[in-house]
């Protein structure tokens, strides 16, 4: 199967290879691949990640984690404005196309583009209450989007038998997209595993479940565009996110600078 996602141009910031494309094209590529991935060809799925400055910092510190984003059946989008800034600076020939492609925005766009004929969606992650609220929000806002299944896995690691049962439920549901909201970095490991084992587009969308369900408030648009969303989120959840930003932001800057292309980009 020719893949729209895997055909998108790729440029590297830190150790992470990003697919450089405007938001609308990212949404269209996800829908196209989801409708075609379960075509009976036996091809594996596709893992889709949304990487921000913290993701780059984690990948810089952990080669095993960085390996999840290596070339293969993987697409990594620019989830954070600082990554987009770095990409535009280092690869000026791609500056016009290098947008922030935010996980919640992609999930919103894909659900809006869905019909009763597909793609079919599976929701994996979140608390039982968030998951219930999310399904209600989807039914209200995008009534044609078909939810094939949903489950809130335990916070502990699954046993081998539990993981096999989970995969069986996803496969039997007929889902073409599995939205995974387990938090970074856990969700990145999970979408890589799902895409390797099942013919699905597995999407690591982080806090999108909470935002779309109304469990947490998003930063105002002007804050998002300013690149200060990290400060907004730190202010709302300082204990949980303190290390992420106070350690991650400086590490991201160093990693991005070290990886910059020499001789003018490209």
Structure description:
There is one protein chain. With about 270 residues, the protein is of the alpha/beta class. It has one domain (about 5-260). Helices cover about 50% and strands about 15% of the residues. The protein has 12 helices and 8 strands. Strands 4-3-8-7-5-6 form a 6-stranded parallel beta sheet, with helices on both faces. The protein has a two-stranded antiparallel sheet with strand order 1-2. Helix 6 links the parallel strand 5 (about 120-125) and strand 6 (about 145-150). Helix 1 packs across helix 5 and helix 2 crosses helix 12. The chain is globular, with a radius of gyration of 18 Å.
Overview features:
266 residues; alpha/beta; six-stranded parallel sheet; globular; 8 strands; two-stranded antiparallel ribbon
Q: How much helix is in the residues? A: 40-55%
Overall mean pLDDT stands at 90
Annotation, overall tally of beta strands: 8
Low-confidence spans: none
Physical arrangement of strands within the biggest beta sheet: 4-3-8-7-5-6
Largest sheet: 6 strands, parallel
Shape: globular
SSE order, as H and E?
EEHEHHEHHEHEHEHEHHHH
Q: What's the domain count? A: 1
Span of the ends, CA to CA: 28 Å
What fraction of residues sit in β-strands?
A: 15-25%
* Structure annotation, total helices: 12
Structural class: alpha/beta
């Amino acid at each position: 199967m020719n893949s729209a996602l895997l055909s998108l141009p790729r440029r590297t910031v830190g150790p992470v290879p990003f697919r450089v494309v405007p938001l609308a094209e990212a949404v269209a590529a996800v829908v196209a691949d989801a409708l075609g991935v379960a075509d009976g060809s036996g091809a594996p799925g596709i893992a889709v990640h949304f990487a921000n400055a913290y993701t780059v910092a984690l990948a810089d510190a952990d080669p095993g984690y960085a390996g999840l984003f290596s070339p293969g059946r993987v697409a990594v989008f620019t989830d954070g404005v600082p990554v987009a800034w770095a990409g535009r600076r280092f690869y000026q020939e791609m500056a016009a196309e290098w947008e922030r492609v935010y996980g919640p925005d992609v999930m919103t766009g894909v659900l809006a583009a869905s019909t009763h004929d597909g793609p079919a969606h599976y929701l994996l992650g979140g608390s039982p209450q968030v998951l219930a609220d999310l399904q209600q929000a989807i039914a209200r806002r995008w009534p044609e989007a078909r939810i094939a299944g949903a489950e809130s896995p335990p916070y502990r690691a699954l046993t081998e038998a539990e993981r096999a049962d989970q995969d069986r439920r996803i496969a039997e549901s007929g889902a073409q997209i599995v939205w995974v909201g387990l938090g970074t970095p856990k969700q990145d490991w999970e979408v890589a595993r799902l895409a390797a084992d099942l013919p699905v587009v597995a999407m690591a969308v982080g806090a999108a479940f909470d935002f779309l369900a109304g469990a947490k408030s998003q930063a105002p648009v002007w804050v998002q565009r300013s690149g200060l969303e990290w400060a907004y989120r730190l202010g709302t959840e300082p204990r949980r996110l303190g290390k992420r930003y106070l350690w991650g932001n400086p590490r991201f800057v160093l990693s991005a600078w070290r990886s910059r292309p020499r001789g003018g980009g490209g």
